[in-house]
Amino acid sequence: MSVISLDGLNILIDNLEEGVLFLDEERRVLAINKAAMDMFGRDDEHFIDEICPSELVGSSCTQACDQRGYCSLAKTDDDGRQARDIELRRPDNTTLFLRMWAMSLAGSVGRAHCAIVLKNRTLERQLEEEVSERLRLGGLIGHSLPMQELYKQILRAAVSEASVLIEGESGVGKELVSRALHENSNRDKGPYVRVHCAALAENLLESELFGHARGAFTGAETARAGRFEAADGGTLLLDEIGEISPQIQVKLLRVLQEREVERLGENKSRKVDVRIIAATNQDLAAMVRAGKFREDLYYRLRVLPLRVPPLRERREDISLLASHLLNTIVQRGHGGEVRFSAQAIQLLEAYHWPGNVRELSNVIEYAMVYVTGMEILPHHLPQEVQASPEAQKVQPGIAPPEPWISGSKVVPAMPEESRRLGLTRYYHRPSAAEEKTAILQALEETGGNKTAAAARLGMSRTTLWKRLKKYGLLQGQAGS
């Protein structure tokens, strides 16, 4: 039984964003909606009775048709339809990237043999191409699939004026995501204002957000604009939004609904034009269910949700991030030229990073304090990174690599990546005679103290004992 009139069906089809064409058995166009005509770049009705739109001639669509002139897309599979991505060259020489579906209608809708549905994927394709080789967006760094997807979502959200809720664990870089949204939006010339909601007491946060009139409370000697007014024409980040009190939630909801604020101690409303971004490391949905966060405010904030992946979900980004953070520290003047050894990178990639990128930055700061040469080795990293269960699975019982000695000079151990690439010609491995001479010299300079000699040679005391035994130097040697 029909539930919609033919006229009503035509109105519905003509108002779809997707393009729709109906073709007969000979692939002649029986009907076409407005969206399809716009995609083809023609606003007339000369499509009717045309054997496929001329714009498709030579495309991957018509090339796939068999000799009988049968639309290959109408050869449906089990789900009743097929899809193909095509490039459409329009009369004005612009190109659209379309996804095309064809559905067989043979014997069910008059002369219509198949229906073709077209979806414009040009913007999506441009975003995919833009982020496919991107290593960073703003202050965000990473080339992993989770980060590529995040970049794409940020660029999509940036063109909107809708509120964004950024969710993610502590230390993942939610504030960097917020800045990237602002910098890629039409508001990038306007102010970017951040409020850390967890850092202020309720009465101070209310004044900070909405401002206050003179005399509104003790100490309010002058009137003051709030952060909403300061961000007018730009973006306001409400960081740690889950920490605000029920009273602030009510006032914030009103601002989001009315786009106006009232300063404390005033009855006057002030219009504000602000794009709201909220960030949290809490599960706001669970807080809503527990009655700790207003449901209406939650959905007002979460129009466009963004999830920032934790570092353990994008381990392939760790070496890139570590190198960037190391260079940043070096450029601040906190050390000379330093690099990571392959073994140190292995430990960093194996660690579970509960503190995410912030913890990685702290670990590198730690290593820079204890590194003594040009290479960060495993024993320069914090104990929790060296001893984590994940690290032991990668290299159980890992120990610092032994240095090579040339005369009395310690030469850093060859990095594993250089060994794999065959770059051994850049390193000189000392001969037995050179190594023996260096050990004797170190023992003489330290008065026979093996611990001090080992430190001078850049090797462990155990390694020194092995070398003494190897070269027959144990007899007559004393010292600790």
Commentary on this structure:
The chain has 480 residues and is of the alpha/beta class. The protein folds into 4 domains: 6-120, Beta-Lactamase, CATH 3.30.450.20; 128-215 and 225-307, 3-Layer(aba) Sandwich (Rossmann fold); 314-401, Helicase, Ruva Protein, domain 3, CATH 1.10.8.60; 405-480, Arc Repressor Mutant, subunit A (Orthogonal Bundle). It has helices spanning 6-14, 34-40, 60-63, 122-132, 145-158, 174-183, 202-210, 227-230, 246-258, 284-289, 295-301, 318-331, 342-350, 356-370, 383-386, 389-394, 416-420, 432-445, 450-457, 461-470, and strands at residues 19-23, 29-32, 82-89, 95-109, 112-120, 136-137, 140-141, 164-167, 192-196, 211-212, 224-225, 235-239, 260-262, 269-271, 275-280, 304-307, 339-340, 375-376, 404-406, 409-411. A 5-stranded antiparallel sheet has the order 2-1-5-4-3. A hairpin with a 2-residue loop joins strand 19 and strand 20. Helix 18 (432-445) packs across helix 19. The chain is flat and about 105 Å long. It starts with 5 loop residues before the first helix and ends in a 10-residue tail after the last helix. 30% of the residues are buried. Mean pLDDT is 78; it is low at 76-81 and 396-429.
What is the topological layout?
Elements: H1 6-14, E1 19-23, E2 29-32, H2 34-40, H3 60-63, E3 82-89, E4 95-109, E5 112-120, H4 122-132, E6 136-137, E7 140-141, H5 145-158, E8 164-167, H6 174-183, E9 192-196, H7 202-210, E10 211-212, E11 224-225, H8 227-230, E12 235-239, H9 246-258, E13 260-262, E14 269-271, E15 275-280, H10 284-289, H11 295-301, E16 304-307, H12 318-331, E17 339-340, H13 342-350, H14 356-370, E18 375-376, H15 383-386, H16 389-394, E19 404-406, E20 409-411, H17 416-420, H18 432-445, H19 450-457, H20 461-470
Helix pairs in contact: 4-5, 5-6, 12-14, 18-19, 19-20
